[in-house]
């Protein structure tokens, strides 16, 4: 009985990770609200038309924790992540400093994922008023 109580949450978490990362239009990335004392949270970004839904990998609810609307999204900076910032888990990634309305955050991912993010931003209609630095 103890084995079932321990293995069931692990299996459910593994199933959640597989379902989230294998879904079409999903990209593995990290998000950190700014300013704040909270660290990086590993999750999945899902493109849905004019929105980017960010869903944490570890959690109970399957709904997005943050919904980022493309219209009015401002990317103000870019920086390489330091070797100790992710405890060595995700080295070689870049973080983008972003602002969407009153929500300021950093989005960190590998080169391919960030290239897709910038392409998604740039593919907005001409009336979207985007600001990418």
Care to describe what's here?
It is a single chain. With 133 residues, the chain is an alpha+beta fold. The chain has one domain: Pleckstrin-homology domain (PH domain)/Phosphotyrosine-binding domain (PTB) (PH-domain like). 25% of the residues lie in helices and 38% in strands. It has 2 helices and 8 strands; from the N terminus they run H-E-E-E-E-E-E-E-H-E. It has helices at residues 2-22, 111-122, and strands at residues 26-33, 41-48, 51-56, 66-69, 73-80, 94-100, 103-109, 131-132. The protein has an 8-stranded mixed β-sheet. The protein is globular, with a radius of gyration of 16 Å.
Quick synopsis:
The chain has helices at 2-22, 111-122, and strands spanning 26-33, 41-48, 51-56, 66-69, 73-80, 94-100, 103-109, 131-132. With 133 residues, the chain is of the alpha+beta class. The protein has one domain (2-132): Pleckstrin-homology domain (PH domain)/Phosphotyrosine-binding domain (PTB) (PH-domain like), CATH 2.30.29.30.
